[in-house]
Write a structure and sequence with these properties.
With 553 residues, the protein is α/β, with parallel strands linked by helices. It contains 22 helices and 18 strands. Bound molecules: zinc ion (ZN).
Amino acid sequence: MKIGELLKAKGLLTDAQLNLALAQQGITGDLLAETLTKLGFVSSKEIAQALAAQAGMDFIDLHGYVIPDDALRLVPRDIAERMGFLPIGVEKGWGLTIGITSPSNILAIDTATRIGGKPPMVYMIDTESFYETIEKAYYFLENPIQQRIANTINEIKATEALSAATLSPGIISTLVELLIMDGIRKNATDIHINPASETVHVFCRIDGVLQHALCFPKIAHSGIVSRIKILSQLDIAEQRLPQDGSFAFSFLNKKYDMRISTLPTIYGENIVIRILGSSGPLLRITNLGFNEHAARQLKILFSKPHGIVLITGPTGSGKTTTLYAALRELNLLEKNVLTAEDPVEYRLSMVKQTEVNEKAGYDFAIAGRNFMRQDPDVMLLGELRDEETARIAIRASITGHLVLTTLHSNDAVTAIPRLIDLNVDRFLLSSSLLAVLAQRLARKICTNCKTEYQLKDGELKSIDLPELEGKIKTAYKGMGCPVCNNIGYRRRTVIGEILIVDDEIKELIYSGSSVKSIKDTAIRNGMTTMRDDGISKAIEGITTFEEVLRVVG
Ligand SMILES: [Zn+2]
């Protein structure tokens, strides 16, 4: 089957989308697959998965996958690029494991057989991650970054500088660049630079958890702070007040947006760098990790013509990823979709995305008000932070628009009192709110080193899961391997609960019922709580019980 037909047969592409893509292809001359991904109709990963299924091959998602150096050393970069395959592993006596982007790439298999001495294990990988991984993997093979960081730190120590002023600016800017590159290499979302009394520690947040990266002499701290401030156009003389700024960082053909925040602490200025642009590929509702029932409920919600769908959870709980997946459920060729985001993390074609800028006076409320004059069908308002934005969201939804937005609350039901706090009218709220989705992200066990083990008597009770004690005998964990950087976890899944506002819940909201009675009713009507959703994912072996408790408490 041809790619267009194949994707249509899988329900990933509509006729209208295919026709539009063919029209665009006629102008640009690009390949169809490339055009489809550029338009955001189908992701590069979905194309590869469809091709793999058609050819009866297994697909590997390379996002967050660390390719062992010994595999890379066996295959020179120019051969990998020319033959169109990526070495992803090598096992003594077993030959190479490779990833290819086209199922019919016989040349790649022949080449890998010659190099590995045996026919290789072959997996499908997607084109986007092929190019990205090949760049990244060989770059870091040729430029061992840990070694360069260690050398730079030794150089700083060796200068025996009496004061920070004597350190050469060259060393400082190299170290800043290396720290950022190391963060990108590890798929970190944030880099923390924490001064202590004698040293400075650097941590990276990877899959939601901080990990210690390195330590450097305190003498380099003020230079590093100044360098980062200069890059982000902050005031280097101001050291007593917090500041925030940003700068662009280009690395291996990719542009990253660095958001900087400084905070004066008793040991000097603490810096947090948020890395935007390192997020994984666009997902669909069905790939976020929701169970089948929840995914179906969400698809129905996002196809409603009007009302409010609220997503709640703390920062870093994947709300934005879910919102983007929601937008992909909409028929963007027939609906006018406008967004106000803070910041825009992913560019979507066919969606009118705007970025709020409070300093310039463009906030969510102003965005929402102006969207109403743009003939909208759906609007996404990044966050309900104030009374005015909440009022605009309600007004838009009762005048026939679908509004997607987020709020900070601990679980789905407590979003309701949070909205009431924003002075929202109970009657209007009960008639416009369709559902509240609360979510967290839990790390998934690395599939490469996942192991089943026997639970000890009392083990579940001791980790605060008495309800499961004696009911299950085994559990799963990751032992740690090169692919997951010895962490035992790789990538994350959603853990969520969906409060559907049915007639009974509407009545409870309107009559001002307690959080408890709303929650009890929702559970009686079929809501699975986040905790229960997490527990069933741990029982299935997708994640661990410890991880579930870490994220949902
Ligand atoms: Zn592993």
